[in-house]
Amino acid sequence: MLAPVKASNEAERISELQALHVLDTSPEERFDRISRLASALFDVPIALVSLIDTNRQWFKSCVGIAASETERDISFCGHAILGTEVFVIEDASKDERFADNPLVTGPPDIRFYAGCPITMPSGNSMGTLCIIDSKPRVFGTEQKSLLQDLADIVIGEFVAQQAATIDPLTQIYNRRGFDVLANKALANCRRYGWNATIVYFDLNKFKAINDNHGHASGDKILVTLADILSRSMRESDIVARLGGDEFVTMLMNSSESKARYKVERIRNEVEKFNRASGLPFELCISYGIVEYDRKKHRKLNDLLHAGDEEMYRYKREFQLQNQADL
Prior knowledge:
Elements: H1 10-19, H2 29-42, E1 46-52, E2 56-63, E3 69-71, H3 77-80, E4 87-89, H4 102-105, E5 112-119, E6 125-133, H5 141-165, H6 175-192, E7 196-203, H7 206-213, H8 215-232, E8 238-243, E9 246-252, H9 256-277, E10 285-291, H10 300-322
Antiparallel strand pairs: 1-2, 1-6, 2-3, 4-5, 5-6, 7-9, 7-10, 8-9
C-alpha cells in the first residue's frame, strides 16, 4: 500500500480547511443532496464529500457507509487532492498503490474510485467529492466532466460559507465569523475551566483620514492594522474586524497581564509602521482589555460590551492628553 504524500502547501491547506469551521459539524442537506445525486447519477453505492484533515479524512456527507472518518494514510482521497483533475482507479485490486489497502481487502471492498478535488479559489484542495463501487468500472471523459460539475457545486457552497465569515477588505474574520468562533471558544472555557482575554481595538482619527486623504487611505490603514494583529497573534487566537474601524482579538488561555504584553508588541509594530510609512497621517489605536469571567460574562456580548467600554475609557484619556478630536 502506498500512503498519500503531503503537498508542499500542506500547512496553508490545513489552515484554510480549519478556517472553514466545517470539520466535525452535523450533516447538512445542501451537501447530502449532492452525495445522493452523485450516487444516483453514476449508479454507485457510495458517494462522499470527504475532507482531508491532518491525519484523517472526515466525511461531511456520506451515502452508503456508516463511518464518519478513516485514517488519512489509507485514504484514496489523500491521493486525489494532490492533483487538479478527477482521480480515477478503475480496479484497485490490480493497482499496486491500493491492492493491499484495508479498504480494498476488507469492507467496503473498494474496487472502483473516482474523486474530484474540492479546490478553493486559493488553489488549496480541501478534499474531494468521490464515488466508490465494489465492482471494477470504466470512467470516461464525459463522466469525469459530470463529476467535476457536481464538485463545483460543493466548492461553491464552501466559498459562500467562507465569504460569509471573512471581511473582504482585510481578509480576517468579520463579526459573524468572530461570533461563531468566540462562542465555541467560550463554551470550551466554561467546560474546561480555561481562561481567555479579549482586546477591543478602535482606530483614532479614522474619519479624519477618510475625509482629508480619501477612502483608499482609510482602507490602507484598516488593512495595515489587520495585518499587524494577525502577525502578532497565535494560531489559537481569534482576530476579527467587527465593522468600520473596530477590531477585536480573543486570546485563548491568556490572562489580562499576558494580553497587555501582547498589546505592547502590537503598539511597537504600529510605531514601526508609522516611522517607515512616509504617510501624512499616523496609524493610532485605542484599546480595551477584558479577561473572561464566567460569572460576569454569561454571553459573548457581555464580554464584548465590557471590552468596548474599556476601549472608550482609554480613548477618552487619550483625547484629554492630546487635546485632539478623535
